[in-house]
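Hi everyone,

Forwarding the result from last night's run.
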Amino acid sequence: MMDDRKLLALAKKNAAKSGTNSKVPKGFGKKYDKNLPDDPTDEATIKAKEETKKFFSEMKKRDF
């Protein structure tokens, strides 16, 4: 059986890996082109981007 210190260290390691405490999506802000401007990481901008993405995905489904 594991002692408490090892169990606590393992729990911290797994929590850090999972990234569950972060509201920023995984891979957000990752750039492949250094000439592109930095992506903002504040929550309001992320939420606005998500809403825009959802809006355009709905508009793609419609026929005009």
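The chain has two helices and no strands.

Cheers,
N.
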